[in-house]
């Protein structure tokens, strides 16, 4: 038994080196693979850390925000002369740091616009649409650009119905007083027109009263002189009774005449774009005639427009239309005042009134041509 055990032990001893050698041959590749995997994971981790650091460095770097700026050369009377804004747009808003000479002026990229909407009804705002009535800010997000080109003749519809006016709850007051700068007085009518165009474009009827355009003309002349430019003839866009999309914007401009001269430059320009005028005289007021309306110079061209729209003037010599207008207006005022009162009372031209007008026009044209 002991001899057998010794032989087994010697045999095991002889085979141990071989087994160890084989074990070492198997273990060495395993260690090499493990070290290779460790090396690869370390490399990947370094790349990952480098990528994260690069992203954070780039993210921390401030982005370049280029702004076009200029400098104030001079400022006074509401006019600022600025140098350096080469790409500035017409009527673009700019940002002043304090409005002093030498200060930086930045472009905003925004054209002059004003707030519009139902929220402005019953409020008093300045030429830029800012509330000045002490009732807080105006809660509206809708804005419209100022100075939008007026619709042309083709999309408009002729005057055919009177307009019922409202009170302060349906009124927007755009205030640019004599103490305001000339640019604000010049801008105020355009701002009011833009606010009225909002209602027109949404199918509603609006009335805008310019009180008064002669003051705007003076402000424009003042701006032209300050800018050293000759005041040119730039008539205000004719937004009188233009209708688009079911809405309308009716203008009622007020003009102050000098010494009662209605043939002056400003009155004749306004008369040319309206459908009539009511001329008030101070002398009549002091004589107790109130309202102090000069009935000779106050005319309405609505009647003649009715004749033209209905085709009654198609066969009339164009050179005689002016004389026809004068005589027909006088005729309908003196002989058919009851019909005019009926139309004013009804608020529209009913089929009965239309038939009566048609007969009056037909009879008068036959008499006029004869």
UniProtKB/TrEMBL annotation:
Subcellular location: Membrane
GO CC terms: proton-transporting ATP synthase complex
Main localization category: membrane
PROSITE patterns assigned to the protein according to its UniProt record, in alphabetical order: ATPASE_ALPHA_BETA
Domain ATP synthase alpha subunit C-terminal: 301-364
Single GO MF annotation: ATP binding
Residue span, ATPase F1/V1/A1 complex alpha/beta subunit N-terminal domain: 67-105
Keyword Cytoplasm: no
Domain of life per record: Eukaryota
One Pfam family of this chain: ATP-synt_ab_C
Alphabetical keyword list: ATP synthesis, ATP-binding, CF(1), Hydrogen ion transport, Ion transport, Membrane, Nucleotide-binding, Transport
Domain ATPase F1/V1/A1 complex alpha/beta subunit nucleotide-binding: 160-300
Family of this protein: Belongs to the ATPase alpha/beta chains family.
PANTHER family: ATP SYNTHASE SUBUNIT ALPHA, MITOCHONDRIAL (PTHR48082)
The name this protein goes by in its record: ATP synthase subunit alpha, mitochondrial
Natural source organism: Leptidea sinapis
């Amino acid at each position: 038994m002991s001899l057998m055990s010794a032989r087994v032990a010697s045999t095991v001893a002889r085979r141990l080196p071989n087994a160890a050698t084989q074990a070492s041959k198997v273990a060495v590749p395993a260690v090499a693979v493990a070290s290779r995997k460790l090396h690869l994971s370390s490399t990947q981790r370094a790349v990952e850390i480098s990528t994260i650091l690069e992203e954070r460095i780039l993210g921390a770097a401030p982005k370049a925000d280029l702004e076009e700026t200029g400098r104030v050369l001079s400022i006074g009377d509401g006019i600022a002369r600025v140098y350096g804004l080469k790409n500035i747009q017409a009527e673009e808003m700019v940002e002043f740091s304090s409005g002093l000479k030498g200060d930086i002026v930045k472009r905003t990229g925004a054209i002059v616009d004003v707030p519009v909407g139902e929220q402005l009804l019953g409020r008093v705002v300045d030429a830029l649409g800012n509330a000045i009535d002490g009732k807080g800010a105006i809660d509206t997000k809708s804005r419209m650009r100022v100075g939008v080109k007026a619709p042309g003749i083709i999309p408009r519809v002729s005057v055919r119905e009177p307009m019922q006016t409202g009170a302060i709850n349906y009124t927007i007051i755009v205030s640019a007083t004599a103490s305001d700068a000339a640019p604000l007085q010049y801008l105020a009518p355009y701002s009011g027109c833009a606010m009225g165009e909002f209602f027109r474009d949404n199918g509603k009827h609006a009335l805008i009263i310019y009180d008064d355009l002669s003051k705007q003309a003076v402000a424009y002349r003042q701006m032209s002189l300050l800018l050293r430019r000759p005041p040119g003839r730039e008539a205000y866009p004719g937004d009188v009774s233009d209708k688009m999309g079911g809405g309308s914007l009716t203008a009622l401009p007020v003009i102050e005449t000098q010494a009662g001269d209605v043939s002056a430059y400003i009155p004749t320009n306004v008369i040319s774009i309206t459908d009539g005028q009511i001329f008030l005289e101070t002398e009549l007021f002091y004589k107790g005639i109130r309202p102090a309306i000069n009935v000779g110079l106050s005319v309405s061209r609505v009647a003649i427009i009715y004749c033209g729209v209905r085709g009654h003037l198609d066969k009339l010599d164009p050179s005689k239309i002016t004389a026809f207008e004068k005589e027909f207006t006088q005729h309908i005022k003196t002989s058919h005042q009851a019909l005019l009162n009926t139309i004013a009372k009804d608020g529209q031209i009913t089929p009965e009134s239309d038939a009566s007008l048609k007969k009056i026009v037909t009879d008068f044209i036959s008499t006029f041509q004869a």
